[in-house]
Design a protein that fits this description.
The chain is of the alpha/beta class. It is 50% helix and 9% strand.
Length: 674
């Protein structure tokens, strides 16, 4: 019951409920065993003996023990194990320790489709749909645009039907950093392009076709640093059709909370349902690809803030004549053409090794290409890109031309470069260290009321949500629940074992230092066979690379509870024979005769009963049944092989006679477990 109730600490409802109700069932079974079963045996007494034995001396019958071939077989095993206890204990411990190193390699999986048999219809249907239509598992990327970044937006008003005000009430924001509707659509398009070219078929092949608001728009117009009639009309059309965008599934407005009135632009991705994609690595890889684009917008924000603060600049509007120089890179290609993947660092394809492929994404190239595209749409002169380290650069570091360019520029964006220091920009009127912007620490966080936030980001934020992050969280929760439940079961069971194996009488001599130390040592030693099945089997699963799912996870604490039951039976009879005055070797052999057959029979009955679940087509149930049979067999080995070897060896001296039995003998038929 202790092993089962420890599962109730899990955050996953199926595991928590299983632990709770199973523990209640065990306690209820115990109550029935001690109440209904004795009454039934008394009322419906079976005829174990012939009628002519009715007058037989009952005391003789009570001291007569029928020993079958199984008892003799286990006694023979006991004699061999006690005679070679050092060899048996050493080999068992070496195997146990070696297997235990595999625990660090355990991997969890809660992929929904892997809960079904590979030959089931749903798997075949998914395979057909992915082969003919594309990837199916949704992953959502939400780009949050705060009100301060919206150059025009509808101000909602309360009405009877809770409808927003018509576009005639549009409000023009004066911030120079704000983005027009067209520029916001371009931001989504750039992120979409990066995701497609890094994680899609042209790149790592992890995701399928991405969809966003720009997917349903006409082709976006070319960028321009000045007024452009096509861009202006396109922007007006987007503003006029804003209500249609809000009615779609790809743009929403936050109605309350700390980010009220922010626009939420959705980019919907699809990942293969039948692939072995590690969702944790996938989310990290997606962040690696997307964040450089957002850092480029942070750089834009810093540049526009610098230019707006320049003396003589009208409030809310740039002159369009500002000179901007980007130092540390040649002019990059567009996001549509630049190579974003380091082909020499790709390992395999798709999801074969995403932890390595994560480094194959060229984040600096993405950042520079995005920055180049963004600056082509701002009200500045066409930016100048200079890389002094390049052989083709017309400008040398420290030359008169260098000093002139730097001193006459309105903003210098330093993106890196070899041999360049901050002292080289001494005469620059405004320097933006883009290296710090690119390298800044950005982490997901939670704002008030558990609303997703991004710590360290600029005004534009990317939030990663959908089914995949939920499944990834479930994977991590599954592993943490496994560790926590096993740890809780271990501690509770260890405390019980320490109490049971204390030779003192409670409460008077129980806490004597000598008795308490003996109980602590004996309880610790008794925990070795208790954890033997879990460490052995789960360690081997880690070495083999087998995935731990919900059904597998529930078996660990159950197996420990079953092992404890056998351990307590063995140790109770062992101590009973010690109390009779036997030495440890004889006590072990007699214990084999007494409990060996029963433990073998209960393991076979329980294991085969649970193995019926292995016939299920539902994978967690199937694995639960199979693994329980294996764990019960391992528990039997731990209790009837490893434990006796430890008891017969030097460590067995930790087990002392009970103080109440020293100098007296108990009846041979007294049950030490009662």
């Amino acid at each position: 019951a202790i092993g089962l109730i420890s599962l109730h600490s899990s955050n996953l409802a199926p595991i928590s409920n299983f632990g709770l109700y199973s523990a209640i069932g065990v306690i209820a079974t115990l109550a029935i065993l001690f109440s209904y079963l004795p009454a039934s045996l008394q009322t419906f007494a079976p005829s174990f003996f012939d009628d002519n034995l009715e007058d037989t001396n009952k005391s003789e019958l009570s001291t007569t023990h029928e020993e079958g071939w199984l008892s003799d077989a286990w006694a023979a095993v006991g004699r061999w194990i006690t005679g070679h206890h050092a060899l048996v204990a050493t080999v068992s411990m070496v195997v146990l320790i070696t297997a235990s190193f595999g625990l660090a390699k355990i991997q969890t999986s809660v992929q929904l489709l892997k809960l079904f048999d590979p030959e089931s219809r749903i798997i075949r249907d998914y395979a057909w749909m992915e082969a003919n239509f594309g990837k199916l598992v949704p992953m959502e990327l939400i780009v949050r645009v705060p009100p301060s970044m919206q150059s025009e937006r509808v101000t909602p008003k309360e009405s009877d039907d809770d409808a927003a005000t018509p576009p005639s009430d549009q409000q023009l924001l004066t911030s120079t950093q704000s983005l027009s509707m067209l520029k916001r659509a371009e931001a989504i398009s750039r992120i979409n392009t990066v995701v497609r070219r890094t994680l899609g078929e042209p790149g790592l092949g992890v995701v399928g076709q991405a969809m966003s608001a720009d997917t349903f728009m006409p082709p976006l117009p070319a960028p321009s640093n000045g007024y452009h009639v096509v861009r202006a009309k396109f922007n007006r059309d987007l503003i006029a059709g804003r209500d249609e965008l809000l009615d779609s599934d790809y743009v929403r407005i936050e109605k309350d909370g700390p980010f009220k009135d922010s626009e939420l632009w959705r980019i919907s991705l699809r990942v293969g349902a039948l692939s072995d994609t590690d969702y944790g690595y996938f989310i990290a890889t997606l962040r690696t690809a997307v964040e450089p684009v957002l850092r480029a917008y942070d750089t834009r924000e810093a540049m526009l803030e610098l230019l707006a603060s320049k003396e003589g600049t009208p409030a809310g509007k740039l002159s369009g004549k500002d000179r901007v120089i980007i130092i540390g890179s040649e002019r990059p290609e567009s996001l549509d053409t630049v190579s974003m993947i380091r082909q020499d660092q790709i390992v395999g394809h798709a999801s074969s090794d995403q932890s390595t492929n994560n480094h194959a994404i060229d984040t600096r190239t993405i950042y520079l290409a995005a920055l180049g595209d963004i600056l082509l749409s701002e009200s500045i002169r066409r930016p100048v890109w200079i890389d002094p380290a390049s052989d083709e650069s017309p400008v040398e570091l420290g030359s008169d031309l260098w000093d002139k360019l730097v001193s006459e520029s309105d903003a210098v964006i330093w993106v890196g470069g070899e041999g360049i220091t901050e002292a080289d920009f001494g005469d620059a009127p405004g320097l933006i260290d883009a290296r710090k912007i690119f390298d800044k620490d950005v982490r997901p966080a939670l704002a008030a009321n558990n609303i997703p936030d991004v710590s360290g980001s600029g005004q534009l934020q990317a939030i990663y949500t959908g089914v995949i992050p939920v499944v990834y969280k479930a994977q991590r929760t599954l592993l943490s629940s496994l560790v926590r439940s096993i740890g809780m079961a271990f501690v509770l069971i260890a405390l019980v074992m320490i109490v049971l194996l204390n030779p003192g009488r409670f409460p008077f001599s129980f806490l004597r230092p000598r008795n308490f130390g003996t109980g602590l040592a004996a309880g610790s030693l008794a925990m070795i066979p208790n954890v033997f099945p879990v460490l052995l089997i789960f360690g081997l699963m880690g070495h083999r690379g087998d995935l731990v799912d919900i059904g597998t996870m529930m078996t660990a604490s159950v197996a420990m509870g079953v092992a404890v039951d056998d351990t307590i039976h063995f140790l109770s009879w062992f101590r009973a024979y010690l109390d009779k005055g036997m030495d440890r070797v004889d006590a072990v052999i007699q214990t084999y005769r007494r409990v060996g057959p029963a433990m073998t029979q209960t393991t076979i009955v329980g294991g085969l009963g649970l193995f019926v679940f292995a016939l299920s087509t539902f994978t967690p149930t199937q694995r639960f049944g199979t693994l329980m049979l294996v764990l019960l067999a391992a528990a039997l080995i731990g209790d009837l092989v490893l434990l006796p070897a430890l008891l017969a060896g030097p460590l067995g001296k930790c087990f002392k006679r009970r103080e109440s039995s020293i100098g007296s003998e108990s009846d041979d038929d007294s049950d030490p477990t009662s």
